[in-house]
Amino acid sequence: MKLDTKALRYLTKDDWRVLTAVETGSRNHEVVPTSLIGSISGSKGGLQRCISTLAKANLIAKVKNAKYDGYRLTYGGLDYLALHAHQKQATIYSVGNQIGVGKESDIFVVADPAGRQLVLKIHRLGRISFRTVKSNRDYLRKRSSASWMYMSRLAAVKEFTFMKALWAQGLPVPEAVAQNRHTIVMALVDAFPLRQISEVPDPARLYAELMEMILRLAGLGLIHGDFNEFNILIKEEREGETEVPATDWTDAEQQQQQQQQNPPIKLVPILIDFPQMVSIDHPNADFYFDRDVSCIKRFFERRFHFRSDEPGPHFAEAKAQLRVGGDVKRLDVEVEASGFSRKMARELEAYMQDVGVDGDHQDVTNEEGEGGGGDDGVSVESGPEELEDEDEDEDALDETTSGTIREEVTFAGIRNVPDYHMP
């Protein structure tokens, strides 16, 4: 499902009312009756014209062989509703290039009215896993909320909520800007996915920082659940960099002075992708914790030929750290209190377990140095747009690339990375 914004500027107020009516009707209907669309939107004489406009833009779709005349909302329609909301809230003014595509999300560079570049992440749960679930009807029938769009909303709400909470605690994550429906707007990070980096000056230091990050999350009551090279960005920083003034020194003396005044590049890890994050009190918390640790150990040994002499960290150590002090801040508890309920968490976790989704490894079109994960040749299969007739009466909502650059990165020194320009 590509994001095509060409028709966005041409939709009238009546078109938006009808599109919103289809979304509202989708809470109780997989296929929303045309009569109900007219009733909700308040549209009279112009209803068919609006429906025709929306259908031509692939924002709604007529289902073949339906028992009654009606339409369903497509992911394109949901995209437009989210973008329209972001536009009205002055969060997004323009949409730029696609910089990443994951198994179940798309990543774009966008800009706000002031020209600040941001990142738009669109969750598309069901894109890859749809055929798997389609062959297992029991998965859909046993759920009270089987809509892919509903699950995408849950993923966006969870990721945004955790991102805000982690940012407030000073953890190295992108700044969360806004969330609407299945989309998140966050700060653009000038960094590269760890998986694209072929060499670092000090693997031991970076390894220690990543393990410390895992323990720090656990100390706040959280386990990432997909802590690996796909979901870690590496940012270059030079602290206190100064220019050497012109003197009569020799080149060697000037170079030595430059090195003394300019400290070496510091690599700062940035953590992304939070829909699979769980509480440290989760029944399988030890499994997820150990898996996060093992993923980093294996990657550093394979890529950088580095093996730590230190054992662990171990889950028992992380659990004990959480018990220290009576004023320990529990982000897992805070997030639940902020609106992402246990019911939502259970539904999203069940989805990820049943369809085999562990995070959203992304294929990055790295145009600004901003990553978002990567993938090993993930292919995009049919999405929910191909629902057949037997899917029409399933449970509905119960609540409201471009090309890929595969260059490796050697720190210090980034090669073959074109500048990004907003169109």
Element layout with pairings:
Elements: H1 13-25, E1 32-33, H2 34-41, H3 47-56, E2 60-62, E3 70-73, H4 75-88, E4 94-102, E5 105-111, E6 117-123, H5 130-134, H6 137-141, H7 148-168, E7 176-180, E8 183-187, E9 192-193, E10 197-199, H8 203-219, E11 222-223, E12 232-237, H9 251-261, E13 266-271, E14 278-279, H10 285-303, H11 315-323, H12 331-337, H13 342-354, E15 362-364, E16 409-410
Parallel strand pairs: 10-16
Antiparallel strand pairs: 1-3, 2-3, 4-5, 4-15, 5-6, 6-8, 7-8, 9-12, 11-14, 12-13
Cofactor: Mg(2+)
Catalytic activity: L-threonyl-[protein] + ATP = O-phospho-L-threonyl-[protein] + ADP + H(+); L-seryl-[protein] + ATP = O-phospho-L-seryl-[protein] + ADP + H(+)
InterPro entries: Kinase-like_dom_sf (IPR011009), Rio2 (IPR030484), RIO2_wHTH_N (IPR015285), RIO_dom (IPR018934), RIO_kinase (IPR000687), RIO_kinase_CS (IPR018935), WH-like_DNA-bd_sf (IPR036388), WH_DNA-bd_sf (IPR036390)
Percent of residues in beta strands?
15-25%
Low-pLDDT regions: 133-146, 242-246, 364-423
CATH C-level category of the domain at 192-335: Mainly Alpha
**Which value, in Å, is the CA radius of gyration?**
24 Å
Mean residue pLDDT: 77
What's the end-to-end separation, in Å?
Answer: 21 Å
CATH topology of the domain at 192-335: Transferase(Phosphotransferase), domain 1
**Order of SSEs:** HEHHEEHEEEHHHEEEEHEEHEEHHHHEE
What is the percent of helical residues?
Answer: 25-40%
Keywords: ATP-binding, Kinase, Magnesium, Metal-binding, Nucleotide-binding, Serine/threonine-protein kinase, Transferase
Domain RIO kinase: 64-326
EC number: 2.7.11.1
Family: Belongs to the protein kinase superfamily. RIO-type Ser/Thr kinase family.
